[in-house]
Amino acid sequence: MKSVTLNAPAKVNYLLDVLRKRADGYHDLRMIMQRIALSDQIEITLLDNPGIYVTSDKGGVPDGPGNIAWRAAEAILSCSGREAGVRIRIVKKIPVAAGLGGGSSDAATVLIGLNELLGLGFSDEKLMQLGVKLGADVPFFIFKRAALAEGIGERLSPVDRLPAVWMVLVNPNVHVSTASVYQNLRLTKREDTYKMPTFSGNVDQLCAILSNDLESVTTERFPVIREIKSELLSLGARGVLMSGSGPTVFAVFADEGAARYCFDTVSKVSGWSSFLTRTI
Ligand code: ATP
User: Fold this and answer.
1) pTM, 2 dp
2) pLDDT category, 175, cuts 50, 70, 90?
3) Does 256 lie in the same domain as 221?
4) Which CATH number belongs to the domain containing residue 185 in this structure?
């Protein structure tokens, strides 16, 4: 049986500006997004008989059609007109509903993997068109590089010369619904004169742009985010920010030693889950 196992990496948002609410209920955003090494594993196997079967090793992640990976398989099979049988096993390493884009990355990886396994020959553009219907962050994971994402997240352009950095992620083990964060967001009219910096690979320059409009909304509900940020800064982080709609906070380090020292300390705090990782 033909089979492939792929990594589905998480992302962090270095910048997340919410620009306006659109007539269709979505928000126009401006995001700078970066993939990190922390990844789920996706095993995709072609079966002899038609049908899509998705399982995950983690409670709280739906099996079957409730899983975004199932919907990704369904979307690419129906677009190709093929009646293949597909089994997908997900080993979940990325915390769920955590602002790290785990479900979106799983979906993107299924699109990429099935395109390959079935020899469909769809372009990345075509996969992104299928992906954005599944979730606004899916195209980014097909793009496969650091990006400026605009619109609802589907308009992507590369961001060059961001520094490679180490990160410590801390998740306080509460689940945050992205929809509820947007519902509680009070949009202020803003001057939209943003100019993308030209990055030079400098860590301080990266840390100077860290900003997330959703952070205050999620922090109001979960003040522990403020506590995590100050703990990470006191352990030597060069910059800290909540990712996406949260609650995961990432801390930026220029070198592995400093990141590892922070990780060793913060991972002892009970009730928090910590991860040592790096940009890819
Ligand atoms: P985003 O920032 O894009 O909202 P997130 O990282 O905060 O993403 P996910 O981990 O993608 O959130 O999970 C969001 C919801 O989707 C969860 O409630 C979960 O039950 C559901 N879900 C469906 N499929 C998956 C999957 N493959 N992995 C994780 N969650 C999934």
Assistant:
1) 0.96
2) confident
3) yes
4) 3.30.70.890
